[in-house]
Write a structure and sequence with these properties.
With about 400 residues, the protein is an alpha+beta fold. About 35% of the residues lie in helices and about 25% in strands. It has 13 helices and 18 strands. Strand 10 (about 200-210) and strand 11 (about 220) form a beta hairpin. It is elongated and about 85 Å long. The structure holds guanosine-5'-diphosphate and manganese (II) ion. Guanosine-5'-diphosphate (GDP) binds near residues 106, 209 and 221.
């Protein structure tokens, strides 16, 4: 589950991580109120208006702008709220901006130059340990840094039993070239950040940029926080931060129906039981010249009701030109699934307007095929994996 920048910053702040302060607003009027309030609290006279969407690269897309007066706060907020913001991380049509974060300007002039760093905390799957990844090259596209100057990206792995040790936090600050107050601030920043990461059961923190201000404070200017869905049951307060407007509508609906569904770009809808079978079915579809439109695991109980819900969900995607049902009957009997498919097809009447290729294999596969062939429905049955894929290719021609 992703958080908005402003939610991530509130979370970090509650663990003692210093952040660029801000107030969220959903209208230009509230944005001006937010700016006034912020000035009272921080003394800032310039503000940054930041679009709140679940995607990075907002700055380049015109979603982060500096305002030097309350009038500018108002006009920029008016421009950004409601816009379809396009960044390299959004869908091609962009994402609608519902809120802006009015933040204090932290790039003020002073004794030294402000300096941007990159920092993330994540699991290194190869070693099974959390690591802090950081770089002197902050503020910009970290993928480009990784490609062109990989030696400028450092990693620090953390032993799960010992936790982050003080010398490790000091090493991070040292490698970032900091001294004096900024060095001490960075040690504290890294320690609090790691504590926040483990205590919230997060799967990713990405702070880009981490800023050294001109008066040697270290703070988070941006925040990307991804929480582990599987741990949300023990963070009820965090679960409430979910913003369904940011999520794929069909995925949300499927989720509520207890189906494991991921929306993809292709033209062949898949209904499969078991994640492994779903993956190989998607491979097969690609091999036969189609593109999977989704990943859908109906799970162990593929009865008529579930199959019908799955059909409805797959058909919401207008790109779907064919549906491949590929079910292995291990615990669930194939004839029961076949009955489910036939019943669902009957119930849905003319709503199913694309060919269905149905492959049922395993317990009672023969009975299942007979049931489908005798149903009089326009369901193409297949027994073998490749045969099913060929039949999909045929209907796509
Ligand atoms: P992203 O583009 O989605 O990653 O959004 P960020 O929150 O990282 O902001 C993008 C850029 O806006 C940063 O890299 C900064 O250069 C700039 N920015 C953010 N806050 C301030 C600020 O307080 N003052 C100024 N002048 N620039 C800022
Ligand atoms: Mn950023």
């Amino acid at each position: 589950m992703n958080l908005h920048e402003y939610q991530g910053k509130e979370l970090l702040s509650s663990f003692g991580v210093r952040v660029q302060r801000g107030v969220v607003a959903d209208t230009a009027e509230k944005a001006v109120e937010a700016a006034k309030k912020l000035s009272e609290e921080t003394g800032t006279s310039w503000w940054v208006v930041k679009a709140q969407i679940h995607a990075g690269g907002r700055g380049k897309g015109g979603g982060v702008k500096l305002a030097k007066s309350l009038d500018e706060v108002k006009s920029i907020s008016n421009e950004i709220i409601g816009m379809m913001l396009k960044t390299p991380q959004t869908p091609p049509q962009g994402k609608k901006v519902n809120q802006v974060l009015i933040a204090e300007d932290v790039y003020y002039p002073g004794d030294s130059e402000p300096n941007e760093f990159y920092m993330s905390v994540l699991l290194n799957r190869a070693t099974g340990r959390n690591m802090i990844m950081y770089s002197t090259e902050g503020g910009m596209d970290i993928e480009a840094v990784a490609e062109k100057t990989p030696h400028l990206i450092f990693t620090e792995e953390i032993d799960p039993q010992l936790g982050l040790l003080p010398f490790q936090a000091r090493k991070v600050a040292f490698n970032l070239g900091l001294t004096g107050t900024a060095y001490k601030e960075m040690v504290k920043f890294v320690s609090s950040l790691y504590k926040a990461f483990t205590q919230t059961d997060s799967s990713l923190f990405e702070i880009n940029p981490v800023l050294k201000t001109s008066d040697d404070k270290i703070l988070a200017v941006d925040s990307k926080v991804v929480l582990d869905n599987n741990a949300l049951f023990r963070h009820k307060d965090l679960a409430e931060l979910r913003d369904l407007r940011e999520e794929n509508e069909i995925e949300v609906e499927a989720n509520e129906a207890g189906l494991n569904y991921v929306d993809l770009d292709g033209n062949v809808g898949c209904m499969v039981n078991g994640a492994g079978l779903a993956m190989s079915t998607m491979d097969l579809i690609k091999q036969s010249g189609g593109e999977p439109a989704n990943f859908l695991d109906v799970g162990g109980t593929a009865d008529a009701k579930r199959v019908e819900t799955a059909f409805r969900i797959i058909l919401k995607d207008e790109n779907v030109k064919a549906i491949l049902v590929n079910i292995f009957g291990g615990i669930v009997r194939c004839d029961r699934v076949a009955q489910g498919v036939v019943d669902a097809y009957k119930n849905m009447g003319d709503k199913i307007n694309v060919p269905i290729i149905c492959r049922l294999q395993g317990t009672n596969a023969k009975e299942a095929k007979e049931l489908i062939d005798a149903s009089g429905m326009e369901i193409i049955s297949a027994t073998e994996f490749q045969e099913a894929a060929d039949k999909v290719a045929d209907v796509l021609k």
